[in-house]
Amino acid sequence: MGLYASHLFPRLMEHALGTGQVHKLRHATLATVSGEVLEIGFGTGLNLAHYPATVTRLTTIEPVAMLPKIVSQRIAAAPFPVRQLQLDAAGKLPLEDASFDFVVSTFTLCSIPDLKAALGEIRRTLRPGGQFIFLEHGRSDDAKVARWQDRLNPLQKVIGCGCHLNRQIDRLIAEGGLKVTELERFLMKDAPRIAGELYKGTAVAG
Fold this sequence. Notes:
Layout: H1 3-16, H2 20-30, E1 35-40, E2 55-61, H3 68-77, E3 82-85, E4 100-106, H4 115-125, E5 126-137, H5 143-159, H6 169-175, E6 178-187, H7 193-196, E7 197-205
Parallel strand pairs: 1-2, 1-4, 2-3, 4-5
Antiparallel strand pairs: 5-7, 6-7
């Protein structure tokens, strides 16, 4: 892992995804979360301030150690216990089946290399009646914008540390064995449309 991925890129993401508008989106996305929660792609812990008091414990998975001092401070300020884990040698979640009431993903599905396998793990660790809550950017419904996303995607994967511009999030979630029960599509204010097409929703084990 190079200096760019471990230090510069996380600071760029702190700036881009730590705005007032994105904070409001995080807050709205996480408003219904409760009980035992798993967050995929914890990053620098920007979601921590937006979890409601109904969360009893948060378990996090993040393959890259990003800005550890900032992350430690945010975890220390959390009103609930936070358990940090990493994927096992086979790339699976080191967790029992049906362990969580909610699994959360924000601005993460764009960069997971084997997304179908990851979604299968999310499905496996959800309890009966549990929900997968997501807030992601992805492929535009506008064909012209989508073509530009396809053209720029190879460059984006380099400068975005594996981030894809053109993943159709709802379709991929369904292909991963989850059923999307709620979905909102909208544009992030003041963001370039190729990166600001958002998917916010809920899915359950299909």
